[in-house]
Amino acid sequence: MTLPHCAQANPYEIDLEEGQKYYWCACGLSQKQPFCDGSHKGSGLKSHCFTAEASRKVWFCGCKQTKNPPFCDGSHGEINQ
Asked: Over the stretch 58-78, which tens digit does the pLDDT of each residue have?
């Protein structure tokens, strides 16, 4: 299995819009972090599609190690930069 690249150790603060569809970058290679730009093609990884159920502020994972995609779960505290 291909491991994702850590785009950044800290999460991305995002203001979600209710009903909006988001594609979270799971590979860490996108130039449009934390969103997918298709850079994962050929990596064995794929983006995570997410539809916001409510308008609110959230934190999307930047290290790509979360067990709860696309949300940060604190896994960045376990990685070495």
From this structure: 999 999 999 999 999 998 766
